[in-house]
Specification:
Length: 181
Amino acid sequence: MLTDAPRPATEAAVRTGYFIDEHLQFIGAAAGNRPGSLPFPEPLPATGLDFARIAAMPLILPGRGHGLRDLLDGLAEQAGLELNAVIEVDSYSNIKMLVAESLGGSILPEHAITADVAEGRLRNRAITRPAISREIHLAHSVRRPMTNAVAAVLALAREILRDLVRSGHWIGAHLPDGAPA
């Protein structure tokens, strides 16, 4: 199982291994031409947007309890900020649709927005001060014995995921420093 747990699993029944870092990006509508729409922040800084500036914007985010939302809430709390979540929806597709309608901005993994940005529906910017990424963990149950089949599937999953990252097919992801190549 892949999980975006912002911290190692605390439940004794699951063992996780930190595996991949995935960059998160701010997204806004490509054009704020809808009456009453929220324009993408202008002027667009070439180097990205500060998290504090993003937190104050009207945001469309997953609901509490979603791994991405929990990560963002934790970062906001550490910085003494509160996220201005005006709409909560867990589906990335629905978040992107609402953002494209200029109802707010959002923060999503880079791979989830690449096609929409390329097709001109959304615009994106890196998040700076701090740059934000999430940890992707490979997890498995410890309640059942580690059979040869389970070990083989885990090894194959690691190999496939590393290949996706190294080849650039998992856009915005990278292997953490010191991770086996």
